[in-house]
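Worked Example 4.2. Consider the chain below.
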Amino acid sequence: MRELKVVIADDHPVVLLGLREVIQRDERFILAGEALSSSQLVEQLSLHQPALVITDFNMPGDEIYGDGLQLIEYLSEQFPAVKILVLTMVSNQLIISRLLEMGVAGVIAKSHIREEIGKALNALANDRTYNAPAVPATSVLSNVKVIDERFSTLSPREVEVLRLVVAGSSVGDIARQLERSVKTVSTQKVSAMRKLEVQSDHALITYCIKADLWNL
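Applying the procedure from the previous section yields the following structure tokens:
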């Protein structure tokens, strides 16, 4: 059986170590490269042209590749032959559904990675997608609510915060990444929600996805 080349990516060394051990124990796969960030991941994909990439959803991004939905969209467009298995702490079904609509080969919740990674690799080795039990593939794009021009009222800093919210970052994570206080980030998020006239994080993420926020 031909070994399938795999690149793994996660900014947490413990997760990366676990993935490395799983891949190296499975004779159907060969570990071609590892990455700790979006830029490193793109470099590894360009260098090795693997059959499969297993990547964290929320990694340190950069201005070119970003992370979250922006990164997955870039990988899907630039490396269409590569199957993408996404690991995520994000439980929002709209984000998970959007990932599936982008054509990823599967989505695994990090809280269930031990139980699901073997099943996912079995599916992918047999050229099938992996449908985790907890990931219903409900469509986001079938919702035809009109996206109005409210985003034009947001400040650049509010847009920056919302991009990170959609990527799965908490207010505390965003404060650390942007080197702002938690209070400042929280205020900017609340201000953005008020301008968009949304009352919950779920509604906020829905709005951002429909507005294709990472391309604004």
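Residues 135-146 have pLDDT under 50 and may be disordered. The beta strands are 4-9, 29-35, 52-56, 83-88, 106-109. Compare this with Example 4.1 before moving on.
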